[in-house]
């Protein structure tokens, strides 16, 4: 469990700088430059992610149950995870209505993904992993919306001059569903040893 906790700290700490110290972050970027900041940020995050995967894998070999989720929570988790994948894709496709409506679809997607996995899993490691990501996503979303309001933007990354595109909306939904299906039916079992659909 120690490796998992260390990994969560190393991964979520750099991702939380804008939540707790946005002005300090701006000062550091000005001091060392954006490329150096992104390099340092990425290096710490990669180490953290590797420790999360390693630590979670070890914790799963000797699980400590907190509760036993009913079977229907797996179906809910699959539905919520599908929506999470669509939100993640929406973060990268310009001029889609989902991004225009939500503003920060990637963070919203992480929030939904974490909540879905909390529903369907009940060990201490699950609560630690997915609970940490859920709390981070809630705080990050609030912080991002506060920054939007401070600069007078209704939503981040959405130009008021850019009209929504139906083609972009279709791409977001179809790619999101496709990636979700690939992950749910193939990659999830291969990467994590758990097949959501048996």
From TrEMBL:
UniProt entry keywords in alphabetical sequence? Membrane, Transmembrane, Transmembrane helix
Q: Note the Pfam families from the entry.
A: NnrU
User: Domain named NnrU: which ranges?
Assistant: 3-196
The topology of this chain with respect to the membrane is:
Multi-pass membrane protein
Task: List the GO cellular component terms.
Answer: membrane
Q: List where in the cell it is found.
A: Membrane
Annotated TM spans: 40-59, 71-93, 113-139, 170-192
Asked if the Swiss-Prot or TrEMBL record annotates the protein with the keyword Transport, the reply is no
Q: Which InterPro entries match?
A: NnrU_dom (IPR009915)
> What is the designated name of this protein?
NnrU domain-containing protein
């Amino acid at each position: 469990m120690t490796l998992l906790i260390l990994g969560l700290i190393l991964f979520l700490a750099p991702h939380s700088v804008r939540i707790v110290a946005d002005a300090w972050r701006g000062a550091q970027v000005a001091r060392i430059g954006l490329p150096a900041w992104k390099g340092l940020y990425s290096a710490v995050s990669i180490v953290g992610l590797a420790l999360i995967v390693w630590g979670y894998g070890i914790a799963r070999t000797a699980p400590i149950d907190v509760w036993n989720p009913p079977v229907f929570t797996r179906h809910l988790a699959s539905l919520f995870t599908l929506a999470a994948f669509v939100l993640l894709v929406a973060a990268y496709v310009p001029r889609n209505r989902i991004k225009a409506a939500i503003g920060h679809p990637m963070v919203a997607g992480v929030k939904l993904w974490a909540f879905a996995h909390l529903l369907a899993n009940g060990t201490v490691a699950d609560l630690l992993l997915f609970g940490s990501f859920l709390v981070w996503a809630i705080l990050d979303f609030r912080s991002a919306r506060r920054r939007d309001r401070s600069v007078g933007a209704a939503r981040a990354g959405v130009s008021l001059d850019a009209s929504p595109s139906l083609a972009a909306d279709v791409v977001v939904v179809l790619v999101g569903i496709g990636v979700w299906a690939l992950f749910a039916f193939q990659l999830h079992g291969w990467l994590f040893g758990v097949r959501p659909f048996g």
